[in-house]
Amino acid sequence: xxxxxxxxxxxxxxxxxxxxxxxxxxxxxxxxxxxxxxxxxxxxxxxxxxxxxxxxxxxxxxxxxxxxxxxxxxxxxxxxxxxxx
Length: 85
Hints:
It is a single chain. The chain is mostly helical. It has helices at 2-6, 9-23, 27-39, 43-55, 71-84, and strands at 60-62, 68-70. A two-stranded antiparallel ribbon has the order 1-2. α3 (27-39) runs antiparallel to α4 (43-55). The longest helix has 15 residues, at 9-23. The relative contact order is 0.15.
């Protein structure tokens, strides 16, 4: 998600909102949404979204670095960062 990667939080929020109806159950969308919430300072909401991904069936995703990871592992990693910096 280009706006999120470039730090355009307003643009990312608009893009996420525009795609919410179609993708709100997609693990990649949820991870991006959780990341956006965290970067907006809404940490508790972000953690709730990330817990949802961690509890869902695992899905292989390609993350920004190009690495292929499971959605559960990606969400747990993001939760650790939010909790412990």
